[in-house]
Design a protein that fits this description.
single chain; 540 residues; alpha/beta; seven-stranded mixed beta sheet; 21 helices; 40% helix
């Protein structure tokens, strides 16, 4: 019998003790964290709330998630991105008034954006601009056709100063994707004014719903004020006018369901073909239960866990070919498959030392040499510090790893399974290093350093400054300052603070990690997977 490459890899043997006290503590804490996550996601799914949702339905309209569900192939998954954008941010709505993600339409993976007309009439807020920009970036980086389901009042005018200048990039991105031969499709379901009118105007294909879609740069009141001209909505920007007279619309839909049907029909004749890795249809599931990840992931980031236990529960057949297993032990590197897709995995098993940084840089080069996508499992408090390590060159060796991460050209996916502090965030492909996708677990924390550490640094600095001045430290004042700093940092390192500001693409249930990684790899492989051997100067 011929063995697949994955079947030749060694089997990862679990050492997990599901009866240990630590397992029970972790599981209980993670279940509570998932309850909190579900409540936040439920808020995202509310849209404008029952009152405005009912009014929307009473007008014979579908809600954005219903439109997306009709658009997707039957039983096809939907990888929602940034569902908690704007969560608990002042003057912003959870979800940012946009539903977006990746789904399969007529057999083609597409980037999908649906405006939420029950929230401020679908007006684009500051966070909505960030989110739509991120969805455009996903479409561009991965070469995905994009479908916009639009019903938008344009910019949120009271906050136009936060939106207007940078918001124009969205229209630029549409035309650039078209130039790159990546199709853009716009289905217009209702009134789309000003900036909302440019979305269909700059898309490759446009469908408008009869007696419902209205697209104009200025509505009748503004036209009257600007020119004195009297006009009706339909003659100024109705779907029939644009389909029969102006030519802005390519297809006139009888109703919303017909618009979705036409959208699916457009995708079906694109003759779209994936150009990246084609995985085998058959692959083995992990030997170990993904539910055990809830007992593995530490609720307390000071308590370490073995990342091999995570790998064993997300890769095909729990098989993993480890690279340099006896060297640089705090960074695990090796090859595996996820849903048949080959991946090179870098996973933290402690703080980064020079040896682990050198090992990681070499491994990234090897994966680029063989055109293998990278998966970063990030749980890192940073690089080792101290006189011994500085003298051994921790800076130059850490720089090698960051150099390799920065210049690697194969698709990278990052999952933050715990801490993400200091330059460790950079070395393990944080947001600034443009992984194709980045998701976090609910136990995730992110920042320059932890709150207690920063408060401790402040204590040392304040005492040193007082000593230089020959003064006595005001202990009460210093204690209050430390408490304030620690509280602020703890708040800002919270996963909800991060995801609300799009520092990641969403908080996920650890048990869904394998599926999320597989969908991300599949989307990334729409484009050819091509590595590079061109890196910057490595300091030796």
């Amino acid at each position: 019998m011929t063995l697949s490459p994955n079947q030749r890899y060694p089997l990862l043997r679990t050492r997990l003790d599901a009866k240990s006290a630590q397992y029970g503590v972790n599981r209980a804490a993670n279940l509570l964290a998932l309850e909190k996550l579900e409540k936040a996601l439920a808020k995202s799914r509310e849209g404008g709330g029952p009152k405005y949702n009912d009014r929307h339905r009473a007008a014979g309209k579908l809600l954005p998630r219903e439109r997306i569900e009709l658009l997707l192939d039957r039983d096809a998954p939907f990888l929602e991105l940034c569902p908690l954008a704007g969560h608990d941010v002042r003057d912003q709505t959870t979800g940012a008034g946009i539903v977006g993600g990746i789904g399969v339409v007529s057999g083609v993976e597409c980037s999908i954006l649906a405006s939420e007309a029950t929230v401020k009439g679908g007006a684009i807020t500051e966070t909505g601009m960030w989110k739509s920009g991120r969805l455009a970036e996903v479409a561009e980086q991965n070469g995905l056709p994009s479908i916009s389901l639009i019903e938008s009042a344009g910019a949120d005018l009271p906050n136009q100063h936060k939106i207007f200048v940078h918001g124009g990039r969205g229209f630029r991105d549409l035309t650039r994707r078209s130039k790159e031969r990546t199709p853009t499709i716009c289905l217009v379901f209702g009134s789309s004014t000003a900036g909302g009118a440019y979305l269909p105007g700059m898309s490759d294909y446009v469908v408008m719903v009869k007696e419902q879609a209205q697209v104009y740069l200025a509505g009748p009141p503004l036209v009257k004020m600007a020119t004195g001209e009297e006009s009706e909505h339909e003659e100024l920007g109705g779907a029939e006018m644009h389909s029969r007279v102006s030519g802005v619309s390519d297809y006139l839909a009888e109703d919303e369901r017909d618009a979705v049907r036409l959208g699916r029909e457009i995708v079906s004749h694109l003759r779209w073909r994936k150009q990246g890795i084609v995985p085998p249809r058959d692959f083995a599931e992990p030997l170990y239960d993904a539910d055990e990840l809830l007992g593995i992931a530490s609720a307390d980031l000071k308590v370490p866990f073995d990342s091999r236990e995570v790998i064993a529960r997300i890769v095909d057949g729990s098989r993993f070919s480890e690279f340099k297993p006896l060297y640089g032990a705090s960074l695990i590197c090796g090859w595996a498959h996820v849903h048949g897709y080959p991946v090179g995995i870098l996973a933290n098993n402690g703080i980064l030392f020079s040896e682990s940084a050198n090992k990681g840089a070499q491994f990234i080069e090897l994966c680029n040499q063989s055109d293998i996508p990278l998966l970063y499992l990030q749980n890192i408090t940073g690089f080792m510090v101290g006189k011994k390590y500085e003298q051994e060159g921790i800076i130059k060796n850490g720089a090698k790893l960051i150099n390799a991460v920065s210049n690697s050209t194969v698709p990278a996916i990052t999952i933050m399974t715990g801490a993400s502090f200091g330059a460790g965030n950079y070395a393990m492909c944080g947001r600034a290093y443009e992984p194709r996708f980045l998701f976090t677990w609910p136990n995730h924390r992110i920042g320059v350093m932890g709150g207690k550490q920063l408060a401790g640094v402040l204590d040392i600095i304040q005492r040193g400054a007082a000593q230089k001045r020959g003064e006595t430290v005001d202990e009460q004042r210093l204690s209050v300052m430390k408490q304030m700093v620690e509280g602020q940092i703890d708040q800002e390192s919270d996963p909800y603070f991060a995801t609300a500001r799009l520092w990641d693409d969403g908080i996920i249930d650890p048990r869904d990690t394998r599926s999320v990684v597989a969908m991300s790899l599949s989307a990334a492989c729409t484009k050819p997977v091509e590595g590079t051997m061109a890196f910057g100067v490595f300091r030796h």
